C-alpha cells in the first residue's frame, strides 16, 4: 500500500483538530494540584481587585491640612474607622484598607513626627489602589486553554478561588515493537539497544502527560501487536505511542493491527525529513476516541514524529491552541530537502544567540539530538541561509 505523504504544516493542523474534537472532560481540582494542567473555563475574579481601597506604601492616612494629629493605626487585615474632622492622621501599613475620608497618604520616609503630630508634604499623585483598579468582578482575565503555571495559580488565589476547573493531564502508554531489541547492556550479536522505550515516556512526562514506563519489546507478529494495543487501550489511556513498524516491510505489523482494531488514520505519513513514516490514528474505545501515535523505529526520526504530531495532538486533547513555534536566526546555511520539510537539528550559540547545525544527525543517531535545542524548520522547496529567520520546533 502506498500513501502520499501529507504536508507537514497541514498534518500538524489535522492532528490538533482531532485532539480538539476529543478533548478531555473538565475536572475541578484544588489550586495546589492545578500546576501544568489547562484552564477549562476563563479565569475571572470573584470580587473587584483590589476589593477595597488599599495603601500602596507605609505612611500616614491624612485628612485636612497639616501638621496632623495622630489618632490611631490601621494594619493590613483590619477595617479602619473613618477619618472625621480636619488635621487628623492614622498610621497605615502597605496593603491596609484606606480609611473612608482619607484625602492623601504621606509616605513614612517623607514625614517628620513630633510626639502625637506628624508633618510633611504628600505626593500629588494618589498613593493607594482603588477598588477594581486591576480587574472588576467577573471580568475574564485569562481564556480557557491557558496552561496553568505558578503565576496563574497565584492570580487565581488573588481572585478568591480555592479550586480551578481544568482539563486533566492526558494519559499515555508506550509500546516498543521489535523483538530484536535489547533492554539492557551494550549492543551485540546483531541486536541493538532500545533507546526509545526509556526516552519517549520521559519526553511525554515533560509534555505534561501521565505516562507509564514502556512495556518490554513486543514480538514481531500481528497477533502480538493487536494484543498489546488492545491491552493498552483497555487500561484507559488517551494515547498509545508505538515505535517501529510504521513502514510496510515483512515484520511491520502496525498498519494491519490498526485495520483489525478498526482504527482510522488522522495522518498517515508526512512529507518531512527525517521521519516521514509517522502516523496518528483514532480508534473509538470506551465511548470516546483514543489515539495511537506510530513513531518510526529510528531514534531521531521517532523524536521528529513526537514533536511534529504528538505535541499538537496533546495540545488539542488539553483544549490548548495549536502550538505557536518560536523563531530563531540561522548562523550557518541549512540545506533543504526538496519537496519535504526539513527539520534540521540546531543548537543555540551562547555567544551570538544564532542557531547553528549540529553534527551526527543521522536518523538512527542520538548524539546530535542530545546537544541540540530543537529542529530548525526549512520549508519545502527552500534552503536556509545564514541570517534567515526560521521557525524552531523545540525538543521537550
TrEMBL record:
<comment type="function">
    <text>Catalyzes the insertion of molybdate into adenylated molybdopterin with the concomitant release of AMP.</text>
</comment>
<dbReference type="InterPro" id="IPR036425">
    <property type="entry name" value="MoaB/Mog-like_dom_sf"/>
</dbReference>
<keyword id="KW-0500">Molybdenum</keyword>
<keyword id="KW-0460">Magnesium</keyword>
<dbReference type="InterPro" id="IPR036688">
    <property type="entry name" value="MoeA_C_domain_IV_sf"/>
</dbReference>
<dbReference type="Pfam" id="PF03453">
    <property type="entry name" value="MoeA_N"/>
</dbReference>
<keyword id="KW-0808">Transferase</keyword>
<dbReference type="InterPro" id="IPR005110">
    <property type="entry name" value="MoeA_linker/N"/>
</dbReference>
<dbReference type="Pfam" id="PF03454">
    <property type="entry name" value="MoeA_C"/>
</dbReference>
<keyword id="KW-0501">Molybdenum cofactor biosynthesis</keyword>
<protein>
    <recommendedName>
        <fullName>Molybdopterin molybdenumtransferase</fullName>
        <ecNumber>2.10.1.1</ecNumber>
    </recommendedName>
</protein>
<dbReference type="Pfam" id="PF00994">
    <property type="entry name" value="MoCF_biosynth"/>
</dbReference>
<keyword id="KW-0479">Metal-binding</keyword>
<dbReference type="InterPro" id="IPR036135">
    <property type="entry name" value="MoeA_linker/N_sf"/>
</dbReference>
<feature type="domain" description="MoaB/Mog">
    <location>
        <begin position="173"/>
        <end position="316"/>
    </location>
</feature>
<dbReference type="GO" id="GO:0061599">
    <property type="term" value="F:molybdopterin molybdotransferase activity"/>
</dbReference>
<dbReference type="InterPro" id="IPR038987">
    <property type="entry name" value="MoeA-like"/>
</dbReference>
<dbReference type="InterPro" id="IPR005111">
    <property type="entry name" value="MoeA_C_domain_IV"/>
</dbReference>
<dbReference type="GO" id="GO:0006777">
    <property type="term" value="P:Mo-molybdopterin cofactor biosynthetic process"/>
</dbReference>
<comment type="similarity">
    <text>Belongs to the MoeA family.</text>
</comment>
<dbReference type="GO" id="GO:0005829">
    <property type="term" value="C:cytosol"/>
</dbReference>
<dbReference type="InterPro" id="IPR001453">
    <property type="entry name" value="MoaB/Mog_dom"/>
</dbReference>
<comment type="pathway">
    <text>Cofactor biosynthesis; molybdopterin biosynthesis.</text>
</comment>
<dbReference type="GO" id="GO:0046872">
    <property type="term" value="F:metal ion binding"/>
</dbReference>
Amino acid at each position: 500500500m502506498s500513501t502520499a505523504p501529507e504536508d507537514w504544516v497541514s498534518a500538524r493542523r489535522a492532528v490538533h483538530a482531532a485532539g480538539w474534537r476529543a478533548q478531555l472532560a473538565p475536572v475541578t481540582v484544588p489550586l495546589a494540584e492545578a500546576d501544568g494542567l489547562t484552564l477549562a473555563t476563563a479565569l475571572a475574579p470573584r470580587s473587584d481587585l483590589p476589593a477595597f481601597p488599599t495603601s500602596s506604601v507605609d505612611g500616614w492616612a491624612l485628612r485636612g491640612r497639616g501638621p496632623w494629629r495622630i489618632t490611631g493605626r490601621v494594619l493590613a487585615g483590619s477595617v479602619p474607622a473613618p477619618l472625621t474632622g480636619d488635621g487628623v492622621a492614622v498610621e497605615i501599613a502597605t496593603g491596609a484598607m484606606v480609611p473612608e475620608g482619607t484625602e492623601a497618604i504621606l509616605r513614612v520616609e517623607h514625614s517628620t513626627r513630633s510626639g502625637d503630630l506628624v508633618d510633611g508634604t504628600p505626593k500629588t499623585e494618589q498613593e493607594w489602589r482603588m477598588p477594581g483598579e486591576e480587574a472588576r468582578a467577573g471580568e475574564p482575565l485569562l481564556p480557557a486553554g491557558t496552561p496553568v503555571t505558578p503565576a496563574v495559580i497565584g492570580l487565581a488565589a488573588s481572585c478568591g478561588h480555592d479550586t480551578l476547573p481544568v482539563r486533566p493531564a492526558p494519559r499515555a502508554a508506550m509500546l516498543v515493537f521489535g523483538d530484536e531489541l535489547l533492554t539492557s547492556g551494550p549492543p551485540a550479536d546483531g541486536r541493538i539497544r532500545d533507546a526509545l522505550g526509556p526516552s519517549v515516556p520521559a519526553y511525554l512526562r515533560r509534555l505534561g502527560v501521565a505516562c507509564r514506563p514502556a512495556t518490554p519489546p513486543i514480538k514481531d507478529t500481528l497477533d502480538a501487536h493487536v494484543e498489546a494495543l488492545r491491552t493498552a487501550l483497555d487500561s484507559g489511556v488517551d494515547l498509545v505511542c508505538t515505535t517501529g513498524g510504521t513502514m510496510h516491510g515483512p515484520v511491520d505489523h502496525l498498519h494491519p493491527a490498526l485495520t483489525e482494531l478498526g482504527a482510522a488514520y488522522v495522518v498517515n505519513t508526512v512529507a518531512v525529513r527525517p521521519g516521514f513514516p509517522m502516523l496518528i490514528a483514532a480508534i473509538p474505545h470506551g465511548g470516546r476516541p483514543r489515539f495511537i501515535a506510530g513513531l518510526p523505529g529510528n531514534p531521531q526520526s521517532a523524536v521528529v514524529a513526537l514533536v511534529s504530531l504528538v505535541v499538537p495532538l496533546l495540545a488539542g486533547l488539553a483544549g490548548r491552541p495549536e502550538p505557536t513555534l518560536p523563531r530563531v536566526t540561522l548562523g550557518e546555511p541549512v540545506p533543504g530537502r526538496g519537496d519535504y520539510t526539513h527539520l534540521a537539528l540546531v543548537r543555540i550559540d551562547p555567544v551570538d544567540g544564532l542557531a547553528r547545525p549540529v553534527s551526527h544527525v543521522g536518523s538512527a543517531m542520538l548524539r546530535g539530538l542530545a546537544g541540540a535545542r530543537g529542529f530548525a524548520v526549512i520549508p519545502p522547496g527552500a534552503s536556509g541561509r545564514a541570517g534567515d529567520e526560521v521557525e524552531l520546533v523545540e525538543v521537550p
